[in-house]
Amino acid sequence: MRRMPGPIATNFGPKRTAAAAFRGVVALALQISCAQSTEEGEGETSSGRESADASEADAGSGSETAATLDCPGPVVPDVVVSVSSDGDGEMPTVAGSCEVSSVTDAETLVLQLACLIDGAAQDIVVTLGGVAGEPPSALEQGESVDMVFSRLESLERGVWISLSDSQGLVLAAASGSVLDADFRGEPSQGIWSPMLVSSEPSSCETGPSQCNTAVQRAALRFSSLFAAPVDVFDHASVEVEGYRITVGNVLLAVGTGTCDGASGSWFDFVVVRGA
Fold first, then answer.
1. What tens digit of pLDDT does each residue of 209-248 get?
2. Mean predicted lDDT score pLDDT of the chain
3. Cβ(274)–Cβ(221) under 8 Å?
4. Is residue 251 included in any domain, yes or no?
5. Whole domain around residue 103: which residue ranges?
6. Alpha-carbon distance values, 272 to 8, 32, 149, 229 (Å)
7. What's the total number of domains in the chain?
8. C-beta separation of 65 from 256 below 8 A
9. Burial of 215 (0-12, 13-18, 19+ CB in 10 A)
């Protein structure tokens, strides 16, 4: 993969700005839809319409309500995932062993890792914003973890990082235009093994992205790691089987348009194992 010069710290703020604007458009559309549904319901009560036309109107109103329920509003703030390293520019997927040199637990969780990658020492700083709760004991100062990390800044953009120990996955975090990074040959097993992450479309209205694509708020499905697949909608969080899953933007590109050759989708999520 071609390396490109770029900033050491990777934080894709503009995408979140576009996502916030799009959520505002969706929220306004839902308010208008709800107001129309209420007016129709009041009219039906006062007139007692029994004609076939009235029945069709009732069915249409019911469909709008179902669509609203299938497209919940945000319940958690934006999720921020930023990873900086000694290297600059793109960093195709690398693996190494790390020791937690420090951990800052405030509104933003900051992990400083002293890693050995391909025989060379390298410092990695992981910043996670919008993630509530205490960091797991596996990420306390002095603990050792295995790391897989990727940073892309050309066609597809983003950062992806996983930390694991002898008990399995400790942390999975991503902020990028695709859900996973290539790792372990073809076909790629991804960096979250054994966890798999996929996107699930919703009934939300579509809206414009920063490029010539339409995007839709959607959900992420987390599977294989848990007894049953777990779906988490855009800007929501759940706790399941000892893990806390926090999802920020899930903006799924629809249609055939591309964003300078990339898909136009964007995903932010953090999965953290409890104590």
1. 666 678 889 999 999 999 999 999 999 999 999 999 999 9
2. 74
3. no
4. yes
5. 80-273
6. 25, 38, 16, 17
7. 1
8. no
9. buried
